[in-house]
Each structure stands twice: as structure tokens, then as C-alpha cells.
Write a structure and sequence with these properties.
Helices cover 66% and strands 2% of the residues. The chain has a domain at 23-113 and 170-221. A hairpin with a 4-residue loop joins strand 1 and strand 2 (82-83). The protein has twelve helices and two strands. It is globular, with a radius of gyration of 20 Å. The chain has helices spanning 12-29, 34-51, 58-73, 86-100, 105-112, 114-121, 128-132, 136-142, 144-154, 158-177, 189-213, 229-239; strands at residues 76-77, 82-83. The protein is an all-alpha fold. Helix 2 (34-51) packs antiparallel against helix 3, helix 5 (105-112) runs antiparallel to helix 11 and helix 6 packs antiparallel against helix 9 (144-154).
């Protein structure tokens, strides 16, 4: 049985209720404001995991939870006209969240679930360093982050902890998305379950910062904004060459 501490997780219903006044205000100020759209997209994928709870399909859960996170941190590169790299985006996003977090939602979450955090940092199968050359030696070296994390906790280096934590969860996400794991496979169940547990707790904490302290923050250019019928029609007409009459 799991020894990680489990506590009540804020539901999307609770998060949306808390967000509703900001949503109405921001929508009135600007109908296409990307902040409510990002929030809505994120909650839609978290809700997918809530609806999937009985199935215990953690492969689908971690992908959905990362999509929710990506909805919040993703940035559009105006020059290249494509999304910016994931790590660059989430590191900037995490920095912004921690700067805004006057209520200490994220640090409190990391302290409450320290055992779960350390178990993820101690898992060589979630270490990119280990997979560069899988061996017993590399496995031992890859666990160094767990020992370093004790110092990071003491020094309250939350950015460092989150960066290392997300890097490991992202590796799991990449294994699944890029076909490097079997659906419901036996080999990665413990690692996968822990990743899901962490994201189920981290995302609500991040969204609480977003709601209470970041509603009026400019979160950057959104990737693939929704297009209205007129705008979509205009885009299609521009893309089609004129037919000779």
C-alpha cells in the first residue's frame, strides 16, 4: 500500500466557483481575454481526470494533467509562428507563480507532500541522466537530487524543487506521448501513480495562485486561440487562391 500522505484535492467545481467573479469581470473588459480561456482549458482537462477516477487509467491521467498545465504555461513565438519550447515556458511560468504566491499555496503544498516529492526525485526511471546510459552507477548518481532536495527545502528554494520535480514528471509524459511505454504496462506503475498524485495536488495549488493573485497578470501570447466564425471564415478565404472566372 502507498505510504504517501493523501489529503482532499480541490475539485474543478470548487476552482471554477472561486474563479467565476474574475471570469465575468475579465470577459466584460475583453471578450477574447486569454486568461479566462487558459483557465477554462486547464480545468476541462483536470475534469477529465476526475471523470476518469473509477477507471484508474493513470496513463491517460498524466497526459491529461500535463495538458492542463500546458494550457497555463504555453507561449506562442510570434517570430517563428509556433509554440515556444516546453521547458522554457514552464520555467518562466513557475517563476511567475512563485513571485505572485503571497498566500504560499505552492510552498505549503510542497512541504505537506515532501515525502511524495522526494520519492519522485529518488526515482532513477524518471531521470533523464539515468536514461542517457542506463546502469547501476548512473542509477545511484541520478538519486543525488533527493539528497540535494533536503538542502533546498531547508533553504526554501522552491523554484529549484519545482524545476527538478516537473522535469521528472515531464519525462514520464514524454515516454507515454512518444510511444515509449505500454498502455497499462507493469513496469512503470509506481512511478506513474506518483506523478499523477503530484500533479493532482500541484495544479490546484497553482490555480489558486492564479485566481487569488494572478487574475490581472498578462500570461503571454496564447497558443491556438479560439476563432470566431467570421475570423475563421476570413482566414480560410485568405488561404484559398482565387478561382478564375
Amino acid at each position: 500500500m502507498s505510504t504517501e500522505k493523501t489529503t482532499d484535492i480541490l475539485t474543478t467545481h470548487q476552482l471554477r466557483s472561486r474563479w467565476k467573479p474574475h471570469k465575468l469581470r475579465l470577459s466584460l473588459e475583453q471578450a477574447t481575454n486569454p486568461t479566462p480561456i487558459r483557465f477554462h482549458r486547464a480545468c476541462s482537462w483536470i475534469a477529465r481526470v476526475e471523470d476518469n477516477a473509477a477507471a484508474e487509467d493513470h496513463d491517460v491521467d498524466i497526459i491529461s494533467l500535463w495538458i492542463a498545465f500546458n494550457a497555463l504555461y504555453g507561449q506562442w513565438d510570434e517570430q517563428k509562428r509556433e509554440p515556444k519550447p516546453d521547458r522554457e515556458c514552464w520555467r518562466g511560468f513557475v517563476d511567475a507563480i512563485l513571485r505572485l504566491d503571497e498566500s504560499q499555496y505552492v510552498p505549503d503544498l510542497l512541504k505537506e507532500h515532501k515525502r511524495l516529492v522526494l520519492s519522485l526525485l529518488d526515482d532513477e526511471y524518471l531521470s533523464g541522466f539515468f536514461w542517457q546510459e542506463p546502469s547501476a552507477k548512473r542509477a545511484g548518481q541520478s538519486k543525488k537530487a533527493k539528497h540535494n532536495a533536503q538542502t533546498w527545502y531547508f533553504e526554501q528554494r522552491w523554484t529549484m524543487i519545482l524545476d527538478q520535480l516537473l522535469d521528472r514528471i515531464y519525462l514520464m509524459r514524454c515516454q507515454l506521448v512518444h510511444g515509449a511505454a505500454t498502455h497499462r504496462g507493469k513496469l512503470n506503475r509506481t512511478s506513474l501513480r506518483r506523478c499523477v498524485m503530484m500533479m493532482q495536488r500541484l495544479l490546484p495549488a497553482v490555480l489558486m495562485v492564479w485566481i487569488d493573485h494572478g487574475a490581472d497578470t498578462h500570461w503571454g501570447a496564447m497558443c491556438y486561440p479560439p476563432l470566431g466564425p467570421m475570423r475563421e471564415s476570413e482566414s480560410q478565404s485568405k488561404a484559398r487562391p482565387n478561382k478564375p472566372r
